[in-house]
Structures are given as C-alpha cells and as structure tokens.
Amino acid sequence: xxxxxxxxxxxxxxxxxxxxxxxxxxxxxxxxxxxxxxxxxxxxxxxxxxxxxxxxxxxxxxxxxxxxxxxxxxxxxxxxxxxxxxxxxxxxxxxxxxxxxxxxxxxxxxxxxxxxxxxxxxxxxxxxxxxxxxxxxxxxxxxxxxxxxxxxxxxxxxxxxxxxxxxxxxxxxxxxxxxxxxxxxxxxxxxxxxxxxxxxxxxxxxxxxxxxxxxxxxxxxxxxxxxxxxxxxxxxxxxxxxxxxxxxxxxxxxxxxxxxxxxxxxxxxxxxxxxxxxxxxxxxxxxxxxxxxxxxxxxxxxxxxxxxxxxxxxxxxxxxxxxxxxxxxxxxxxxxxxxxxxxxxxxxxxxxxxxxxxxxxxxxxxxxxxxxxxxxxxxxxxxxxxxxxxxxxxxxxxxxxxxxxxxxxxxxxxxxxxxxxxxxxxxxxxxxxxxxxxxxxxxxxxxxxxxxxxxxxxxxxxxxxxxxxxxxxx
Length: 474
Hints:
Blueprint: H1 5-9, H2 24-35, H3 40-50, E1 60-63, E2 79-83, H4 114-124, H5 147-151, H6 155-168, H7 177-191, H8 206-209, H9 223-236, H10 243-257, E3 267-268, H11 289-297, H12 303-310, H13 340-345, H14 359-365, H15 371-377, H16 383-398, E4 410-411, H17 428-435, H18 443-448, H19 459-469
Antiparallel strand pairs: 1-2, 3-4
C-alpha cells in the first residue's frame, strides 16, 4: 500500500492535458501571428471555435505581471514571450494549461452563457481574473428558507460558508486539519479523472456518494472531513445543495480561510454521481518527476499548473510518509497559506529541523519544466500574489474536471468568506521552539487543530490584529 502525494500532506498536493504538440505549420502560424502583433488569445479562441476537439493546440509561454494585486488585475495584463510547440526539457518556458474541457470543447462562442464564456477565458488564456472579491452587500442576503433565498442560487451557499468557517479556522487564526482535509478532498474527488477515463470520474461527489472510494488507501485520512461533509449535506440538501458542489465549495472556503489564501472563483451546478471513479489516478508520493508531470498532463494540467497546485503543501503536516514524524509540517508555518513552502523546499531560507520535505517535491522543484516557476513563486517581492493567482486559475480547472455542464453553471464566489491578507501568529515564539525540536508532546496535534499554543492568551491579540489588518473590501 503506497501513500499518495496528497495523502501524505493531509492537505493536498493536487483537464484534457494537451493531446500533443501543434503541427509545425500550426506553430509557424502562431509565431507569425504574434510577430504581427495579433492577440494570441483571440487567435486561440478563433481556432478552437473553428476546429474540432481533436485539433492539437499549441502551448503558450507567458511572462507574468509582477508586483500587481491580483484582485485588481485587468484582462490582457499578461505579456506573451513566445509560443513553442516543443517539449524540450532544457527550455525554461512556462508551460501553461490552456486546453478546453467538458462541454466547452467545440462549443461556439455564440452558444456560451456568460459563465461559460468567463470559464472559457480562464481555461484558455493566462489572463482573466481567477480571484474575486465579489461579496453580498449588507442587507442584500435573504433569510434562509425564504422564497427570495430560493430564487438566488448563491444565497444558500452563503449560509453553508458561514457554517464552515468556524470548523476551518482555529483560535490561533491558522486553518485547521479539517480545512486542509477539505482541500485535499476537493483534489481527490476531481483528480479521479483522466483523458483516458471517458465520462467516469472527476468533480462529481463520488468520493462520498460511492462508498467504496473512501475505503481506498489513496483516501486514507479523509474519513473525518467526509463525515463532516455528510452532515452539511444532510442539513442543506433540501435547499438544493449537491454533493459534488459541496465538496468543491468546501475546498475553496478552506483555502480562503487559511491566512493569505486566495479567494478562488467558485461555480455551482455540477451533477452528482454515485459511480466510483477509476482507480490509480492519484499521484504516488514516490513517483518520479517525469511520471508525475505526465500524470497531471493527462488531466490537462501542465507543469506550470502542477507547480502552483503543489504549493498547497504550505499548510500541511504529514502523517503517513513517515509515521514516526507524524504531524511534522512541510514548511515552518503550518496552517498559513504562504510561500515558505517554495522557499524552504529550495533551501533559500533556513529550514528548522522539524520541517519534513517530501522527496517528490524536492525532485520536482529541480525538474527543468518546473524549477523556474518554482523559483518565481519563492520570490520575496511578488511570489505570494503570483502564486495565489496561478493557484486560483489552476484550481478552477481542477474543480471542473469531468464536468460536462460547465456552460450551465452559476458563479457563487460572492458566497465565500473574505480573504485574510495579513497574519501574525499569536504564538510564534512557541511554534518556533517546536519547529527546532522542543516542546513536542501534544504540540503537533494542537497546531493541526489550529489551536494557539498560548491557550487563551493569544486570542484577544489575534482578533485585535486581524481587525487592524483586514482593510480590504470584499
């Protein structure tokens, strides 16, 4: 029995990948269009509309906008470096996930809903806005159970989110083990899909609705969050809440509850399935870098996207790779969504002895198709905003794998809680001592639960600090 990369993290580690490279003629046309100043996105959308779903799309190499706030980014902020149809491992290009998925494949633009068009842009370009601050205004939310709430698809989801937040946030302000497990649950449900599986698998709720899935070794450690999600489903299904949506919504709520985490655009309306997903589609922790890259490419997730998804290890504390070190984190700020994971995996900053690095992460960080983006996410000046943007964009893709009614979905990002843009741990000194090997005992469990090591002493200062720092409008 082999633990998976996601199982090991107890948080996560993570949609048709490119079917292949564009023909030489296609690549030549793309380069010519770019040299002439033609917008690459417009050309790509036009080609997709004209072509069948079997046409091989060229990859785009992009240069990220640096030093900008992602929530305020405008379409077209990305500057295109060039396009290349090759997979030369010696080239330091960003390989972005640009393939259409689900029912959007081959759908002409004049048939797209507003949501379908927005998702298509997010899937096929490196622009758009994968994060959003949209929220209900004071007095706008209808009361639960009323006709007005039933008329607004997103209304009930705001009540779901409000119930999730106290489960996902500990009294230290860090996100809890259930939050990390919710993110991992979202990965595992959606990740049970590949281009080879046809209509089976994907973000369909089968991880919970198909009883055999939770018994698989891949899903070890998800039992508690699955039980909690069943409780939420029992409470809210009568209001039209589906399991597939509930799983992905929980992942996005958990992500934004983690301090510094992105507010990922969130879509509702997936179809539930009780048919088990195919086996063998989740990444083994001991898989080679090339194996893992190819596995994710078969989910339409290219190396750039894989690099972003790996960063979810920043909140995690492993339990299964080395049981003798159960509870040891993957960076020195467990429960906080920061870029220390990238920095410490690369040995750019001091790493305390209790930090446990997955060998697969270390190997991936040095792979020619990964290492440049990995280093960019570690940048002190703009790595956090760059990573949040890319993670949000890639998780939108992941959360829609196997979904074949994307064009009919409803965006409900406004139901999510607000972001926490700044965070100072109330028990930082005690956490540091623990990371250096001291005060073991129940410390790992307390940190996993999001508890302050100061007990109640740090709560008031934490609340005061948060009130002073949360100045963003949502």
